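Sequence design from tokenized structure. All designs in this work follow the same two-part layout: the structure record, then the generated sequence. An example of the structure record is given first.
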């Protein structure tokens, strides 16, 4: 199984421009998307539900508005995939779990509501592992999702269905979540842009019940400009999300801004797990090209993450998983990762919780002190090339055994700190993409996007 299904399709910006001008129709865009899904998705398993009738009806409404001289918005007629962790009223909402098979969402999340208000056309639900708790996309409920660059391999997770859908040209954009790398990892493996904004920038309402404050919302796209366009449509305070932040000035307008004199650090890893040498070489080369193109000053990273932060992350996140599973009958079939979270949750006491919060505070301080010496940190977005689609996650990297958190060592720390971090294509290893990760200070999202746009230009 080696057929390459990855393709270059229209971007969000291109699609919206064609629909807004009347040169092409939203119905035509949606029909193309549906045809592509029909041709490719039997092999890839990106979508778990497609609402063709609803999408065509919404697209027709967009076209009527254009015909009447109106402007549907900056995402006019853009077919949108929706990760199955994001509810859409009337659509299936199983969250990848047999425990919720047959459940239908009774509300639509703010993220999708705002994208629709900007003219986007939701077309269907993309696959996630159970509750989004794995870095490959497979579940008992939906089966295995595969990478369009090589269907024997994973597109990553947990936003793997969204990444496969965009990389295969089924849709130009699909929503995602990032709790420990779930936007950046699929972006890396599928040659896409995956941006985890500053925590709170993209609202998670309504009814998001997570207490760990690690989960960021975003999207998978083909270009940095598409990501900026999407953010400009969905950011802003939400009364249903206590952590939501005011919308900043438009990101798309600032992509070409001069970032000024930058101080940039590069690290192959954060000292808490190794990186595959082939991945490290590709990413280092991309980082060197960025430094040369921008004239940035290279400074040593000198940033080491305490390996115990992984256990702290699990302790902080375990109550969220427990809230979803506490009514599950004993012996139920759930993913082994979820079983580990559930066992951890039942073992959490006040001391363990206090220790986890202290570990997180220590990490925030360590990273903040490091960022006093540089503006941006460049490092791999994934530590290994894409692995088999069925899993499991890597248990060894560069000859060193790693646990679950060691396999996520370059991504999950920035969920604990809430900083903006993006994966942008850096090159390939064995014919499959790997990404360069760019991390910035909290609220330096515009700078991170600008830097990613530079990398995007020089790596083409």
């Amino acid at each position: 199984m080696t057929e390459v299904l990855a393709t270059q399709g229209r971007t969000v910006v291109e699609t919206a421009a064609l629909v807004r001008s009347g040169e092409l129709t939203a119905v035509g865009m949606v029909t193309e998307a549906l045809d592509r899904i029909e041709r490719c998705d039997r092999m890839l398993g990106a979508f778990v539900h497609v609402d063709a009738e609803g999408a065509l009806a919404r697209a027709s409404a967009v076209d009527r508005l254009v015909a009447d001289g109106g402007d549907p918005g900056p995402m006019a007629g853009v077919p949108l995939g929706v990760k199955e962790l994001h509810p859409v009223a009337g659509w299936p909402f199983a969250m990848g779990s047999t425990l919720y098979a047959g459940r239908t969402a009774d509300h639509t999340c703010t993220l999708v509501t705002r994208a629709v208000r900007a003219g986007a056309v939701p077309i269907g639900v993309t696959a996630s592992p159970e509750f989004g708790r794995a870095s490959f996309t497979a579940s008992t409920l939906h089966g295995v999702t595969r990478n369009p660059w090589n269907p024997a391999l994973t597109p990553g997770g947990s936003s793997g269905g969204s990444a496969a859908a965009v990389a295969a040209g089924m849709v130009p954009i699909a929503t995602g979540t990032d709790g420990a790398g779930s936007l950046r990892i699929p972006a890396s493996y599928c040659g896409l842009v995956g941006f985890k904004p500053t925590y709170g920038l993209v609202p998670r309402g309504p009814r998001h019940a997570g207490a760990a404050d690690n989960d960021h919302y975003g999207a998978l796209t083909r270009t940095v400009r598409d990501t900026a366009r999407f953010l400009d449509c969905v950011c802003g305070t939400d009364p249903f999300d206590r952590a939501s932040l005011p919308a900043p000035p438009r990101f798309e307008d600032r992509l070409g801004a001069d970032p000024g004199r930058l101080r940039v650090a590069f690290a192959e890893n954060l000292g808490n797990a190794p990186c595959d040498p082939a991945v490290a070489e590709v990413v280092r080369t991309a980082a060197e090209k960025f430094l040369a193109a921008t004239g940035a000053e290279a400074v040593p990273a000198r940033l080491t993450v305490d390996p115990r932060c992984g256990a702290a992350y699990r302790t902080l996140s375990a109550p969220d998983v427990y809230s979803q599973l506490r009514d599950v009958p004993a012996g139920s079939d759930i993913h082994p990762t979820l079983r580990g979270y559930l066992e951890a949750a039942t073992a959490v006491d006040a001391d363990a919780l206090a220790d986890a919060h202290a570990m997180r505070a220590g990490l925030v301080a360590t990273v903040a002190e490091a960022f006093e010496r540089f503006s941006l940190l460049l490092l791999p977005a994934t530590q290994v090339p894409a692995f088999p689609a069925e899993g499991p996650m890597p248990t060894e990297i560069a000859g060193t055994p790693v646990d679950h958190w060691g396999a996520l060592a370059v991504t999950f720390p920035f969920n604990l700190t809430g900083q903006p971090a993006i994966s942008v294509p850096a090159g390939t290893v064995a014919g499959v993409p790997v990404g360069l990760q760019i991390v910035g200070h909290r609220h330096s999202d515009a700078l991170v996007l600008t830097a990613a746009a530079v990398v995007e230009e020089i790596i083409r």
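The chain has a mean pLDDT of 95. We note this feature because it recurs in several other targets discussed in the main text.
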